[in-house]
Amino acid sequence: METPLLEFRNITVLRQEKKILDNINLTVGPKEHIAIVGPNGSGKSSLIKVIMREYYPVASPDVVRHILGRDLWNVADLRKEMGIVTTDLQNTCLRDSSVIDMVVSGFFSSIGIYESHDVTTEMMQKADIVLEELGISHLKKRLMTEISTGEARKVLIARALVHDPKALVLDEPTNSLDMKAISQFRKMISDLSGNHNIVLVTHDLSDIIPEIDRIILIKNGKIIADGRKDDILTGENLTKLFDVPVTVEKHGLYYSSHLGEWPGPDPGLRRHDIRIYYEQHI
Questions:
Q1: How far apart are the first and last CA of the chain?
Q2: What are the structural domains, with CATH classification, of the chain?
Q3: Is the predicted pLDDT of residue 274 greater than 50, yes or no?
Q4: pLDDT per residue over 96-110, tens digit each?
Protein backbone atom coordinates (compact mmCIF):
# COMPACT_ATOMS: atom_id res chain seq x y z
CA MET A 1 0.00 0.00 0.00
CA GLU A 2 1.13 3.55 -0.72
CA THR A 3 1.95 5.73 2.26
CA PRO A 4 -0.91 8.06 3.31
CA LEU A 5 -0.33 11.78 2.99
CA LEU A 6 -1.63 12.30 6.53
CA GLU A 7 -2.36 9.96 9.40
CA PHE A 8 -3.57 11.69 12.57
CA ARG A 9 -4.92 9.91 15.63
CA ASN A 10 -6.08 11.41 18.93
CA ILE A 11 -4.80 14.90 18.15
CA THR A 12 -5.71 17.43 20.85
CA VAL A 13 -4.21 20.92 20.90
CA LEU A 14 -4.33 23.47 23.72
CA ARG A 15 -3.66 27.18 23.37
CA GLN A 16 -3.58 29.20 26.58
CA GLU A 17 -5.24 26.24 28.32
CA LYS A 18 -8.13 26.31 25.84
CA LYS A 19 -8.80 23.19 23.77
CA ILE A 20 -8.78 24.33 20.13
CA LEU A 21 -8.61 20.83 18.60
CA ASP A 22 -10.34 17.96 20.34
CA ASN A 23 -9.35 14.36 19.59
CA ILE A 24 -8.91 14.74 15.83
CA ASN A 25 -8.69 11.51 13.80
CA LEU A 26 -7.95 11.95 10.12
CA THR A 27 -6.27 9.90 7.40
CA VAL A 28 -5.74 11.28 3.89
CA GLY A 29 -4.69 8.94 1.11
CA PRO A 30 -1.68 9.53 -1.18
CA LYS A 31 -3.79 10.66 -4.14
CA GLU A 32 -6.76 12.11 -2.30
CA HIS A 33 -8.08 15.67 -2.48
CA ILE A 34 -9.98 16.98 0.53
CA ALA A 35 -11.72 20.12 1.72
CA ILE A 36 -11.91 21.05 5.40
CA VAL A 37 -14.99 23.21 5.90
CA GLY A 38 -16.00 25.11 9.00
CA PRO A 39 -16.98 28.51 10.40
CA ASN A 40 -14.47 31.04 11.69
CA GLY A 41 -12.92 29.81 14.91
CA SER A 42 -13.86 26.19 14.26
CA GLY A 43 -10.29 24.92 14.35
CA LYS A 44 -9.70 24.38 10.65
CA SER A 45 -6.72 26.72 10.42
CA SER A 46 -5.36 25.24 13.66
CA LEU A 47 -5.47 21.84 12.01
CA ILE A 48 -3.35 23.20 9.16
CA LYS A 49 -0.86 24.52 11.71
CA VAL A 50 -0.61 21.02 13.17
CA ILE A 51 0.14 19.68 9.69
CA MET A 52 2.82 22.33 9.15
CA ARG A 53 4.39 21.80 12.61
CA GLU A 54 3.41 25.23 13.92
CA TYR A 55 1.14 23.70 16.60
CA TYR A 56 1.93 20.54 18.55
CA PRO A 57 -0.60 18.14 20.10
CA VAL A 58 -0.83 17.27 23.76
CA ALA A 59 1.63 14.45 24.39
CA SER A 60 0.05 11.03 24.81
CA PRO A 61 1.04 7.42 23.98
CA ASP A 62 -2.06 7.23 21.76
CA VAL A 63 -1.13 10.21 19.59
CA VAL A 64 -0.20 9.51 15.95
CA ARG A 65 0.91 12.43 13.77
CA HIS A 66 2.40 10.99 10.61
CA ILE A 67 2.98 12.95 7.44
CA LEU A 68 4.05 10.80 4.50
CA GLY A 69 4.67 8.02 6.99
CA ARG A 70 7.02 10.02 9.22
CA ASP A 71 6.52 11.56 12.64
CA LEU A 72 9.77 13.51 12.88
CA TRP A 73 10.37 16.25 10.33
CA ASN A 74 12.68 19.17 9.87
CA VAL A 75 10.21 21.98 9.15
CA ALA A 76 12.20 23.18 6.12
CA ASP A 77 12.12 19.66 4.67
CA LEU A 78 8.41 19.34 5.39
CA ARG A 79 7.65 22.50 3.45
CA LYS A 80 9.31 20.96 0.41
CA GLU A 81 6.68 18.22 0.53
CA MET A 82 3.70 20.32 1.65
CA GLY A 83 3.49 23.60 -0.25
CA ILE A 84 1.36 26.03 1.73
CA VAL A 85 -0.56 29.11 0.61
CA THR A 86 -2.34 31.28 3.17
CA THR A 87 -3.52 34.87 3.41
CA ASP A 88 -1.15 35.39 6.35
CA LEU A 89 1.77 34.21 4.23
CA GLN A 90 0.72 36.50 1.41
CA ASN A 91 0.61 39.49 3.77
CA THR A 92 4.12 38.60 4.94
CA CYS A 93 5.31 38.43 1.33
CA LEU A 94 4.03 41.90 0.46
CA ARG A 95 7.39 43.65 0.45
CA ASP A 96 9.76 45.22 -2.03
CA SER A 97 11.05 41.91 -3.37
CA SER A 98 10.72 40.98 -7.01
CA VAL A 99 8.38 38.18 -8.02
CA ILE A 100 11.28 36.03 -9.23
CA ASP A 101 13.11 36.48 -5.90
CA MET A 102 9.98 35.57 -3.98
CA VAL A 103 9.55 32.39 -6.00
CA VAL A 104 13.20 31.41 -5.63
CA SER A 105 12.97 32.04 -1.87
CA GLY A 106 10.82 28.92 -1.72
CA PHE A 107 14.03 26.91 -2.02
CA PHE A 108 15.22 28.44 1.27
CA SER A 109 11.87 28.56 3.12
CA SER A 110 12.48 32.29 3.51
CA ILE A 111 10.59 35.41 2.53
CA GLY A 112 12.77 36.89 -0.19
CA ILE A 113 16.44 36.36 -1.04
CA TYR A 114 19.32 37.35 1.24
CA GLU A 115 23.08 37.63 0.74
CA SER A 116 23.64 34.39 2.62
CA HIS A 117 21.59 32.43 0.07
CA ASP A 118 23.45 30.51 -2.61
CA VAL A 119 21.09 30.86 -5.56
CA THR A 120 22.04 28.43 -8.32
CA THR A 121 21.35 28.50 -12.04
CA GLU A 122 19.17 25.40 -11.59
CA MET A 123 17.02 27.24 -9.05
CA MET A 124 16.50 30.19 -11.36
CA GLN A 125 15.63 27.86 -14.24
CA LYS A 126 13.10 25.98 -12.10
CA ALA A 127 11.50 29.24 -10.98
CA ASP A 128 11.23 30.37 -14.61
CA ILE A 129 9.59 27.07 -15.57
CA VAL A 130 7.01 27.30 -12.79
CA LEU A 131 6.18 30.93 -13.57
CA GLU A 132 5.71 30.00 -17.22
CA GLU A 133 3.49 27.03 -16.35
CA LEU A 134 1.27 29.26 -14.23
CA GLY A 135 1.10 31.94 -16.92
CA ILE A 136 2.73 34.68 -14.84
CA SER A 137 6.27 34.85 -16.26
CA HIS A 138 5.53 38.43 -17.36
CA LEU A 139 5.46 39.41 -13.68
CA LYS A 140 8.93 38.10 -12.77
CA LYS A 141 10.62 41.53 -12.52
CA ARG A 142 7.70 43.27 -10.83
CA LEU A 143 7.76 43.96 -7.08
CA MET A 144 5.34 42.06 -4.87
CA THR A 145 3.91 45.41 -3.77
CA GLU A 146 3.08 46.30 -7.39
CA ILE A 147 0.93 43.31 -8.36
CA SER A 148 -2.71 42.50 -7.68
CA THR A 149 -3.96 40.24 -4.89
CA GLY A 150 -4.85 37.53 -7.40
CA GLU A 151 -1.43 37.74 -9.04
CA ALA A 152 0.27 37.56 -5.63
CA ARG A 153 -1.72 34.42 -4.81
CA LYS A 154 -0.38 32.82 -8.01
CA VAL A 155 3.16 33.83 -7.04
CA LEU A 156 2.73 32.00 -3.73
CA ILE A 157 1.60 28.92 -5.63
CA ALA A 158 4.72 29.20 -7.80
CA ARG A 159 6.86 29.60 -4.67
CA ALA A 160 5.31 26.42 -3.26
CA LEU A 161 5.81 24.48 -6.50
CA VAL A 162 9.57 24.93 -6.92
CA HIS A 163 10.10 21.74 -4.91
CA ASP A 164 7.40 19.71 -6.73
CA PRO A 165 5.66 19.07 -3.39
CA LYS A 166 3.41 16.09 -2.79
CA ALA A 167 0.59 18.35 -1.64
CA LEU A 168 -0.68 21.91 -1.81
CA VAL A 169 -2.26 23.19 1.39
CA LEU A 170 -4.58 26.12 0.66
CA ASP A 171 -6.06 28.05 3.60
CA GLU A 172 -9.00 30.26 2.53
CA PRO A 173 -7.30 30.72 -0.86
CA THR A 174 -9.83 33.05 -2.51
CA ASN A 175 -10.11 35.59 0.31
CA SER A 176 -9.95 39.15 -1.09
CA LEU A 177 -9.99 37.97 -4.72
CA ASP A 178 -12.41 39.43 -7.25
CA MET A 179 -14.65 37.19 -9.34
CA LYS A 180 -12.25 36.94 -12.30
CA ALA A 181 -9.30 36.13 -10.02
CA ILE A 182 -11.38 33.49 -8.21
CA SER A 183 -12.28 31.82 -11.51
CA GLN A 184 -8.63 31.82 -12.63
CA PHE A 185 -7.45 30.49 -9.27
CA ARG A 186 -9.97 27.62 -9.29
CA LYS A 187 -8.85 26.57 -12.77
CA MET A 188 -5.21 26.69 -11.71
CA ILE A 189 -5.85 24.45 -8.70
CA SER A 190 -7.89 22.04 -10.81
CA ASP A 191 -5.00 21.79 -13.27
CA LEU A 192 -2.50 21.21 -10.45
CA SER A 193 -4.62 18.52 -8.80
CA GLY A 194 -3.42 15.98 -11.36
CA ASN A 195 0.06 15.94 -9.81
CA HIS A 196 -0.45 17.14 -6.24
CA ASN A 197 -2.75 16.32 -3.34
CA ILE A 198 -5.02 19.27 -2.62
CA VAL A 199 -5.85 20.09 1.00
CA LEU A 200 -8.29 23.00 0.91
CA VAL A 201 -9.49 24.88 3.99
CA THR A 202 -12.52 27.09 3.50
CA HIS A 203 -15.86 28.27 4.78
CA ASP A 204 -17.10 28.95 1.23
CA LEU A 205 -18.48 25.98 -0.73
CA SER A 206 -17.78 27.70 -4.05
CA ASP A 207 -14.02 27.24 -3.38
CA ILE A 208 -14.40 23.46 -3.62
CA ILE A 209 -13.10 22.42 -7.03
CA PRO A 210 -14.71 19.42 -8.78
CA GLU A 211 -11.63 17.26 -8.20
CA ILE A 212 -12.25 17.34 -4.44
CA ASP A 213 -14.61 14.52 -3.51
CA ARG A 214 -14.09 14.25 0.25
CA ILE A 215 -15.33 16.82 2.74
CA ILE A 216 -14.46 17.14 6.43
CA LEU A 217 -16.70 19.37 8.53
CA ILE A 218 -15.09 20.81 11.66
CA LYS A 219 -16.80 22.70 14.48
CA ASN A 220 -15.58 23.70 17.94
CA GLY A 221 -12.33 21.84 17.31
CA LYS A 222 -14.04 18.54 16.47
CA ILE A 223 -14.66 16.71 13.21
CA ILE A 224 -18.44 16.37 13.04
CA ALA A 225 -18.73 14.82 9.57
CA ASP A 226 -16.39 13.20 7.05
CA GLY A 227 -17.37 11.64 3.76
CA ARG A 228 -18.16 12.00 0.09
CA LYS A 229 -18.99 15.46 -1.17
CA ASP A 230 -22.54 14.68 -2.28
CA ASP A 231 -23.34 13.09 1.08
CA ILE A 232 -21.80 15.80 3.28
CA LEU A 233 -22.70 19.04 1.50
CA THR A 234 -26.37 19.15 2.43
CA GLY A 235 -28.49 21.89 3.91
CA GLU A 236 -29.04 19.83 7.05
CA ASN A 237 -25.32 19.31 7.65
CA LEU A 238 -24.37 22.91 6.90
CA THR A 239 -27.17 24.22 9.12
CA LYS A 240 -25.72 22.21 12.02
CA LEU A 241 -22.21 23.39 11.15
CA PHE A 242 -22.92 27.13 10.99
CA ASP A 243 -25.86 27.33 13.44
CA VAL A 244 -27.96 29.23 10.90
CA PRO A 245 -30.39 27.91 8.31
CA VAL A 246 -28.38 27.08 5.17
CA THR A 247 -29.58 26.06 1.73
CA VAL A 248 -27.12 24.20 -0.49
CA GLU A 249 -27.36 24.24 -4.27
CA LYS A 250 -25.35 22.40 -6.92
CA HIS A 251 -24.48 24.13 -10.18
CA GLY A 252 -22.92 21.63 -12.55
CA LEU A 253 -19.76 20.46 -10.75
CA TYR A 254 -19.73 23.29 -8.18
CA TYR A 255 -21.67 23.94 -4.99
CA SER A 256 -22.93 27.11 -3.37
CA SER A 257 -24.75 27.94 -0.17
CA HIS A 258 -26.92 30.77 1.08
CA LEU A 259 -28.93 31.60 4.12
CA GLY A 260 -32.31 29.92 4.22
CA GLU A 261 -35.23 30.21 6.59
CA TRP A 262 -36.38 28.01 9.43
CA PRO A 263 -39.52 26.22 8.24
CA GLY A 264 -41.52 27.26 11.32
CA PRO A 265 -43.30 25.03 13.81
CA ASP A 266 -46.09 22.68 12.89
CA PRO A 267 -49.27 24.66 13.62
CA GLY A 268 -50.70 21.54 15.28
CA LEU A 269 -48.07 21.60 18.05
CA ARG A 270 -49.08 22.38 21.58
CA ARG A 271 -48.15 25.84 22.90
CA HIS A 272 -45.38 24.39 25.09
CA ASP A 273 -43.79 22.61 22.11
CA ILE A 274 -44.03 25.73 19.95
CA ARG A 275 -42.14 27.71 22.62
CA ILE A 276 -39.40 25.05 22.68
CA TYR A 277 -39.17 25.18 18.86
CA TYR A 278 -38.53 28.94 18.89
CA GLU A 279 -36.01 28.65 21.71
CA GLN A 280 -34.07 26.17 19.52
CA HIS A 281 -34.25 28.08 16.24
CA ILE A 282 -34.41 31.81 16.89
A1: 50
A2: 73-165 (3.40.50.300)
A3: no
A4: 899 999 999 999 888
